[in-house]
Automatic annotation (TrEMBL):
This is Conserved putative membrane protein. One of its GO terms (cellular component) is membrane. It is found in: Membrane. It is a multi-pass membrane protein. The keyword Transmembrane helix applies. Belongs to the UPF0382 family. Keywords: Membrane, Transmembrane, Transmembrane helix. It comes from Estrella lausannensis. InterPro entries: DUF423 (IPR006696). PANTHER family: TRANSMEMBRANE PROTEIN 256. Pfam families: DUF423.
Length: 120
């Protein structure tokens, strides 16, 4: 069990709920594309929060490959969801180019998780 990743998973999930409530109640947006981007960011943040939390207690993920996978997923979700949240609030920001990088890091993280499970 890796307590660091369990705590991180809980904090990401908490952030997802707080941001979702904040966006719903305080940041009304009229642009449907912005709303869709926010929903995508929140959905990915919550799903990956749960994956990080439960992955932290999976014995197959306690070696360096599994921990690297969890680390990549953490970084990927921070970049992917974080950039979506910022881009919908600040128009014309160059952070929109960070979103696909975050998505690619997420994919790489899941490949590492698969690798760790296959060799365990």
């Amino acid at each position: 069990m890796n307590k660091f990743f369990q705590i991180e998973g809980v904090l990401f999930a908490l952030a997802s709920v707080i941001l979702g409530a904040s966006f719903a109640h305080r940041h009304s947006t009229t642009d449907p594309k912005d709303y869709e981007a926010l929903q995508t960011g929140l959905r990915y943040l919550m799903v990956h929060s749960v994956a990080i939390f439960f992955g932290a207690s999976e014995p197959a993920l306690q070696g360096w490959i599994g921990l690297a996978g969890l680390s990549l997923i953490s970084l990927g979700i921070f970049l992917f969801s974080g950039s979506l949240f910022i881009v919908t609030r600040i128009r014309g920001t160059a952070l929109r180019y960070v979103t696909p990088v975050g998505g690619s890091i997420l994919i790489l993280g899941w490949i590492f998780i698969l690798w760790a499970v296959m060799i365990s």
